[in-house]
Amino acid sequence: MSTLDRVTVLGGGPAGLATALRLRNLRLAEEITVLDKQHPTASAGWGISLDDAALAVLDGIDPMAGARVRTAMHGWDTVSLCRGDEEVTASGSRLAAVTRDVFLRVLRQRCQDVGVRLEHAAADPEAAREQVRSADLVVGADGVNSQVRTAFAEDFRPRVALGANHYVWLAAESDRLRPCVLLRTTPYGTMFASVYPFAPGRFTFIVECGGPVWERSGLARKSADESLAVLRSVFAEDLGDGRLLAGTAGWSRFATVHNDRWHTAGAKAVLVGDAAHTAHFSVGLGTRLAVEDAAELGSCLARHDDRETALRAYEAARRVPVEEGQARAAESQAWFERCERYRHFPISQLAFSWRARQPTTTFARLRGMDPAFTERVCRALGGGPPTDGGEPVSVPFDFPAVRPGTSCSPCRVPSRTVHVLDDELARDPRLLGEPGPQEPAFPAGLVLAGRALLDGVAALAGLDTRTARPVEVDLRPLLRRLSAAAGNTATAVDRASAAVAAASRRTGSPVILRLEAEAVDAGRSTLAGRLVLDFVRAVADRGARAAVHLVPGPGERGTGDADGPGEALRLGLGASDLLRNEYRCPTVVTGPWTRDAANTAIGAGRVDLVGVLRRPGDGAGAPGGVADAAGTPAARDMRRETRKDRVTR
Ligand SMILES: Cc1cc2nc3c(=O)[nH]c(=O)nc-3n(C[C@H](O)[C@H](O)[C@H](O)COP(=O)(O)OP(=O)(O)OC[C@H]3O[C@@H](n4cnc5c(N)ncnc54)[C@H](O)[C@@H]3O)c2cc1C
């Protein structure tokens, strides 16, 4: 056990108070002081959602604090997505929230009960500085803009990335509201609010919008009161006679924090909570991570005599779950930042895409939570309800195959999910071993192989394949040539797209552009991305019917994960989403799909068709169709079990 004379905790938010309580309850220090620069009544923020796991950790730190927070929790099970006067609800969320102020008051009271000193640092800055100087250990719990992190930046090596959207954390008092996400169209673009209750009739109300909307609406230049007045009018119908209340914080962009190390050389200072890492608020995870840090830091200091060893053990134990949470949060944040792309989706599909924005919230999981919700999604996408063993999701091809403004009629394809087996990839001996009869990878699905891939994509582009055979153009060599022509890429793109479009017109065939997902994933921020996107647009502009087939690049043919598309498909999905939903170009993504991942991606409108890669030893009847190298089906089930109780906001 590391015994410490004096510990100074900088920051009296959830992380700082929980850490002080933990260290005190474990009797790890003679004197523990929490210094906060703000007066306790000035706490920013309204309600915070906490899941069962967070409460269990709090119980472990201090059972009395856990019990008191529980009595103040306010729960709900149903969430809605509202756009205009359309609304879709889904149940099974099992969520609960508490007033942040109440949560902090409970922790502060318990700290005082057990002898932690709570001080208001700003009252005497010199005394506060002395406290820090003379402490054995400084705990940096001073939030997202941590000064401890800045002071020891060489040790921590922090990276802070700002999100694209602007948000403001408000509260609403209304008897009309319910837990939901509201999408409201304004003359400046879409604004949305994430709304959830934290007490009867009281709701957290986080308003978000993209930078251009924020600028155009004038919110960027308005005072807090003026800004509140604008938002009251945007959400007037939702609020009814209710009130919108401002907090102490104004508009910001969410800062995602990572640190290479969480403690300093010499083990003088250690980071906890938002000072160490942040996770976008749309997954409601930050407070849980903060109390988990506190619990683990205490355990490690209790377990190891040497402080350096203890802090290293703390970081080793926390890094994986924290980074996993941050990855989920990043996907959720990205959905809100891309949301404009999905605005035109049928409302059920929009709701599904919102619910499935975290990689762990798949079609199967959402069906388990609320079968009526997924059934509604399936019906809206043109298929029947899910049946045992049947493919639940139909293909949502109800947008024009080429860019709006051209004369092509909307494409219509069969209303069943179509799985495409890519012939070239399927021939790759590293993937399939000995060639043999090609069993359907999904027993109940339709698997197209060989030439059928082209027919599948042609159907996607709305062509009658009896009269026109589609032409697949492998864009990769072309891209290499175009990249080499740097400096005059516009002309090169123009010439190449004209040639492809002319060939398509001559033969009456649709063009299928084959390329590696990586080239598109970074969007227009890379030369390759710009070339591909300009090329796709130029081909469509010239009247050729185009679809894009995204294949994994070398070294990207990993496995899909049973709970999500996995890293190998992440790039493909990102690129496909951009091409399909911004460039209006139908897409096929080939990769190691599982059945659940495919249904999730198709249901969420991120891809039109999927090409299923199988690997040696994959049985046709294997659950999910594709084996998971990371474990057996049993291991996957276990992983699913451990993830079951995660918050799904
Ligand atoms: C809009 C929004 C909604 C959220 N909703 C949820 C949710 O529903 N559920 C959830 O779990 N999480 C939510 N979070 C995240 C959650 O609020 C944070 O992850 C959590 O508060 C982190 O706790 P912390 O103690 O590390 O930091 P903070 O809560 O930020 O506390 C830091 C404390 O340090 C003090 N401080 C700062 N600088 C100094 C200094 N130099 N000296 C002394 N004191 C200092 C501050 O006054 C503050 O009291 C949300 C976040 C946002 C932005």
Question: How many H/I helices?
Answer: 25
Structural class: alpha/beta
Uncertain parts: 384-450, 557-565, 615-648
In quaternary terms, these chains amount to: single chain
Q: Which bin fits the share of residues in helices? A: 40-55%
What is the topology?
Layout (H helix, E strand, L loop, with lengths): L3 E7 L3 H12 L3 E8 L10 E3 L2 H10 L1 H9 L2 E3 L2 E5 L2 E5 L4 E5 H14 L3 E4 L4 H10 L2 E4 L6 H5 L1 H4 L1 E5 L3 E8 L6 E7 L2 E11 L2 E8 L1 H6 L7 H11 L1 H4 L3 E3 L9 E5 L9 E3 L14 H18 L3 H32 L8 H9 L7 H7 L1 H10 L37 E4 L1 H5 L1 H4 L13 E4 L1 H10 L10 E4 H10 L4 H19 L3 E6 H5 L5 H15 L4 E6 L14 H16 L5 E5 L3 H9 L5 E4 L20 H11 L6
Parallel strand pairs: 1-2, 1-9, 2-8, 5-12, 9-17, 18-19, 18-24, 20-21, 21-22, 22-23, 23-24
Antiparallel strand pairs: 3-7, 4-7, 5-6, 10-16, 11-14, 11-15, 12-13, 13-14
Helix pairs in contact: 1-4, 1-11, 2-3, 2-11, 3-4, 11-12, 13-15, 14-15, 19-22, 20-22
Bound molecules: flavin-adenine dinucleotide (FAD).
Question: Could you characterize what this model shows?
Answer:
- This protein is an alpha/beta fold.
- The protein has three domains: 4-73 and 98-159 and 256-334, FAD/NAD(P)-binding domain; 166-245, D-Amino Acid Oxidase, Chain A, domain 2 (2-Layer Sandwich), CATH 3.30.9; 404-643, no CATH class.
- The chain has 25 helices and 24 strands.
- The protein has a seven-stranded mixed sheet, sandwiched between helices. Strands 19-18-24-23-22-21-20 form a seven-stranded parallel sheet, with helices on both faces.
- Helix 1 packs parallel to helix 11.
- The longest helix has 32 residues, at 307-338.
- It is globular, with a radius of gyration of 27 Å.
- The protein starts with a strand and ends in a 6-residue tail after the last helix.
- Mean pLDDT is 78; it is low at 384-450, 557-565 and 615-648.
- Flavin-adenine dinucleotide binds at residues 10-16, 35-38, 45, 48-50, 121, 141-143, 147, 169, 206, 273-275, 281, 284-288, 290.
